[in-house]
Amino acid sequence: LDADNYETDPCLKEIQRAENYSWMDIVTIHKDKLPNYEEKIKTFYEEHLHLDDEIRYILDGSGYFDVRDKDDKWIRISMKKGDMITLPAGIYHRFTLDENNYVKAMRLFVGEPVWTAYNRPADDFPARKQYMKFLAEEAQ
Predict the structure, then answer these.
(1) Which letter does DSSP use for residue 100 in this model?
(2) Contact status, residue 41 vs residue 30, Cβ threshold 8 Å
(3) What kind of membrane protein is this, topologically (predicted)?
(4) Distance CA 8, CA 109 (A)
């Protein structure tokens, strides 16, 4: 994706249309830009899940999403300018900045945004059960 021209990028527009991403905003994670920076960074790094997909498009900077594989081991995903990721509802994950301590990201949602994170353990939620069922089916 063309992060320098995200406002007019036809590829981004097509993704938004195809996936019904009807809401978006932009967040800058940097000590000079994000209120309660230290607290937020700790919160982002706490292992958690969401009941909706988490969609992030990196417009500038870089960082890491850590996700759990089917064997509950961490996988680190490096994200940089121009990258987009969709973390499915129910997947345990966390986010951290890299040594640059800066990222600017677009957050996309289907419908109204829901920011609630459920820290591990959160295995009783239907979204978690559905995600685990998906993993089991993929393993077959």
Answers:
(1) T
(2) no
(3) Peripheral membrane protein
(4) 19
Per-residue pLDDT of the chain (140 residues; tens, 9 = 90+): 999 999 999 999 999 999 999 999 999 999 999 999 999 999 999 999 999 999 999 999 999 999 998 899 999 999 999 999 999 999 999 999 999 999 999 999 999 998 899 999 999 999 999 999 999 998 88
> Encoding tokens for residue 114?
């829901």
Strand partners, 28: 104
Work out the number of other CB atoms within 10 angstroms of the CB of residue 11.
Answer: 11
CA distances from 76 to 7, 26, 65, 71, 127 (A): 29, 23, 6, 14, 22
Write down the residue that tokens 């499915």 correspond to: 88
Please classify residue 14 by burial: count the beta carbons closer than 10 Å to its beta carbon, then call 0-12 exposed, 13-18 middle and 19+ buried: exposed
